[in-house]
Design brief:
The chain is α+β, with helices and mostly antiparallel strands. It has 3 helices and 14 strands. The strands form 4 sheets. It has a 6-stranded mixed sheet. Strands 1-2-3 form a 3-stranded antiparallel sheet. The protein has a 3-stranded mixed sheet with strand order 6-14-13. Strand 9 and strand 10 form a beta hairpin.
Amino acid sequence: MHLDNKSHSKSIRILTNSPFPMTTSVNSALLATCVPALRRIFAVLTLMVCLNLVISLSAVAANPPSDLLKQPATEITISLGNSANELKFEPNHLEMVSGKRYLLRLNNPSQLKHYFTAKDFADGIWTQKVEAGKVEIKGAIHELELKPGAEAEWVFVPLKSGKYGLRCPISGHTQAGMTGEIIVTN
């Protein structure tokens, strides 16, 4: 790079695959303003593309095909603990298929409250609803708390295959073995 004191411009040699090197003069003030501006424009365009992708995926998850809602739900019952107050999920291994509708019946027969927490799994499903008592909840769900004797029904469709951890995050429960796994296949 060569600085010409008279014109305050920089000579820049442009490398190309051509056997003839190119040299051009660029005003240093123009160069100092254009490069950061171009970087900002590139960053904004990249952000817009990413947001468009997220919005598109959210629209698909929020508006499932109507035939999916007509599909009968496969029922799975899981107990959080048991009447002997053992800290475990029964069963502790769940297998599901992506794109199928499920009704997960949760119950807590123990004298302790428990959580059904599988955040990564919950991030990869579309929840139709959760029913508990006379309450129906719609929207994204990340964990359910069941107090002693409580029951809940969670209707959802797994969208993303993978192996997910399940646990009860109450102090000492995970460490005592109240864990499990959820496997979603294609």
